[in-house]
Amino acid sequence: MHYELYIDLLFLENFMMDSLLLLVLNRVLKCKSNWQRIFLGGGLGSGMMCLGIVVGIPGVFQLIFFHGIVSSCMLITGLRIRTKAQFIKAYILLYLCAVFMGGMMTAFRPYLRYISLFYGTAVGTAFLFVKCWKLLRKISGKEQVRCEVTLYLNERKMSVMALMDTGNLLCDPVSGDPVSILDHEFYEKFREQQQKEGSVLRDTEPKMRYIPYQSISGTGVIKIFRIEKMCVSMDGEKWIEKPLIGISEGTISEKQEYQLILNHDYLNI
């Protein structure tokens, strides 16, 4: 039996599917990768797959190449994977998502007469996978809402991972504004780095003041200051003007999974 393979069409179709898979993983794993890296990873994965088909890799080496080398290169290039555990999780989720999308698209393929509907179904299936994953996380009780936050102060900015915490109800007794808690060690390291770079001046240092707080462990006072603005990146960018930031007395996350605890009032922004 004779087959004709159009390598350009094969590349484009796999490029779209690989990029879509990376977009899903980026959203699920919160890898903070940008569009350029995701499309670069999709292009690399599709290109390597086409190369393997053209060269004609035999037997077991084909399995190793396609499902080991190609998948790994695509994940490392397309996502900002920093640890071995994160890579293993991304690798497993890559094939779970591929099986899920493949099964759904196979079920609907007889009813899709146009290629645009086929690709539209792929996008819809990817969106459904993300929703199902979030639902499973919430049901299992393992979902901690985290997001990336950028703090702006005197033309300087610092990017941190933040925890959306319903338990942080701290407010300034003077203005009534909500207060988010920044990790003490992270703030000091940021200041030291700025001092080394010569970008910290005395007249640009934030004006600190103290407010009382109450927690499970007891009561005390905490230093707070007001910054120019704050950008919360979760389901789009949400800007908060002149928020109050408090400096924690100790480390807020032992594993350094986040450096900021957002106030409860920001959960529904």
From TrEMBL:
It holds the Pfam family Peptidase_U4. GO terms for biological process: asexual sporulation; proteolysis. It comes from the Bacteria. Keywords: Membrane, Transmembrane, Transmembrane helix. The keyword Transit peptide does not apply. GO terms for molecular function: aspartic-type endopeptidase activity. The keyword Transmembrane helix applies. The chain crosses the membrane at residues 6-26, 38-57, 88-108, 114-136. This is Sigma-E processing peptidase SpoIIGA. It comes from [Ruminococcus] lactaris CC59_002D.
